[in-house]
Amino acid sequence: MFLEDCKILENVEVAKNMYLMKLKGTKAIPETVSGQFFMLQCKNSGVFLRRPISIHYINKKESVLEFYYEVKGKGTKDLSAAKTGDYINIQGPLGNGFIKEGTGKKVLVIGGGMGIAPMKYLLEELNNLGSNITFIAGGRNRGALKILDNIDLKGIITHITTDDGSQGTHGRVDMKMRELLEKERYDLVYTCGPEKMMESVAKIATENNIKCFVSLEARMACGVKACVGCSIKTKDGMKKVCHDGPVFDSTIIVEMNPKEKTETCCGN
Ligand SMILES: Cc1cc2nc3c(=O)[nH]c(=O)nc-3n(C[C@H](O)[C@H](O)[C@H](O)COP(=O)(O)OP(=O)(O)OC[C@H]3O[C@@H](n4cnc5c(N)ncnc54)[C@H](O)[C@@H]3O)c2cc1C
Ligand code: FES
């Protein structure tokens, strides 16, 4: 785990309130895997705690680290104000990352909304493992899926769904998942997105006897298992999302939405 100042190469608004930040050359790159996250410092807003943001992508050749984030409150607003050439302090990589069992396997990757953020690097890693990949990307509307322009989907069977029908199939990712499962069999499912979506995806995976990995979110204070801010109850006992997760086998999860319970201990 590293703590370092990184130079911002760009920080652009890809769609309303959704930003792509590229950082140059962190020492953490060689040991970072998809599904892990960094704690980003928001130094100008008076927000004390760092904010957890997933790895969107790592360009190892050019030593560039990408984050894709949505402005929600003070911390992410602060991040969005950063300019090219500024420096940002980041801490990571943190968490376990996606457990890659995809070698030569048929995998279904499902990202909804900002849950698409960790999928870009996962897709590349799975591709490198020789997996047969189907990707379902869902969003509220076409704008919310603008980030797909930044993802290399060559060789990946891709299905798009939008809630308003402005792009791809009108509907939700779980509908598309059910439709695909009528014709195809998959070995593994990886998913990230809103809790309700992940609940539904995990349920369908279980019904179809497919192993499913979910990437959870929880309010975090330290990000390094030093507090109890992100503790969740699982069928295997208490776990810390920042350390034991954020990726979990869906069958041990009791509730996909642990964050509200811990909101008071993480404050801001
Ligand atoms: C492991 C992990 C990876 C994440 N990766 C990304 C990512 O790649 N891109 C991205 O946009 N966001 C990501 N998030 C969520 C992001 O950390 C929060 O949106 C951010 O911390 C909000 O900070 P804020 O100061 O802007 O908002 P706050 O003022 O703290 O909160 C504003 C609103 O956002 C909600 N919120 C705050 N923290 C979280 C949280 N952890 N999860 C869900 N809702 C929250 C609050 O309930 C509140 O309604 C991730 C969270 C975790 C735990
Ligand atoms: S955020 Fe402190 S233990 Fe996980």
Layout of secondary structure:
Elements: E1 2-15, E2 18-24, E3 37-40, E4 51-54, E5 57-59, E6 64-70, H1 74-80, E7 87-94, E8 106-112, H2 119-128, E9 132-139, E10 157-162, E11 169-170, H3 173-183, E12 188-192, H4 195-207, E13 211-215, E14 231-234, E15 237-240, E16 247-249, H5 259-266
The chain binds flavin-adenine dinucleotide (FAD) and FE2/S2 (inorganic) cluster (FES).
Residues 37, 47, 51-54, 68-70, 72-76, 114, 117, 217-220, 246, 259, 268 line the site of flavin-adenine dinucleotide (FAD).
Question: What would the keywords be for this entry?
Answer:
5 helices, seven-stranded mixed beta sheet, about 270 residues, binds FE2/S2 (inorganic) cluster, seven-stranded antiparallel beta sheet, binds flavin-adenine dinucleotide, alpha/beta, disordered C terminus, single chain
Textual characterization of the structure:
The chain has 268 residues and is an alpha/beta fold. It is built from five helices and 16 strands. The strands form three sheets. It has a seven-stranded antiparallel β-sheet. A seven-stranded mixed β-sheet has the order 11-10-9-8-12-13-16, sandwiched between helices. Helix 3 runs parallel beside helix 4. The longest helix has 13 residues. The radius of gyration is 18 Å and the shape is globular. The two termini are 23 Å apart. FE2/S2 (inorganic) cluster binds next to loops.
Number of strands: 16
Percent of residues in helical segments?
10-25%
Structural class: alpha/beta
Strand proportion, as a percent range, falls in: 25-35%
Task: Please write the string of helix (H) and strand (E) elements.
Answer: EEEEEEHEEHEEEHEHEEEEH
The kinds of small molecule bound in this structure are: flavin-adenine dinucleotide, FE2/S2 (inorganic) cluster
Radius of gyration: 18 Å
Mean pLDDT, to the nearest integer, reads: 93
Helix run count: 5
Shape, per Cα inertia axes = globular
What is the terminal separation in angstroms?
A: 23 Å
- The residue ranges in which pLDDT falls below 50 over 5 or more consecutive positions are 261-268
Strand order of the largest sheet: 4-3-7-1-2-6-5
Largest sheet, if any? Answer: 7 strands, antiparallel
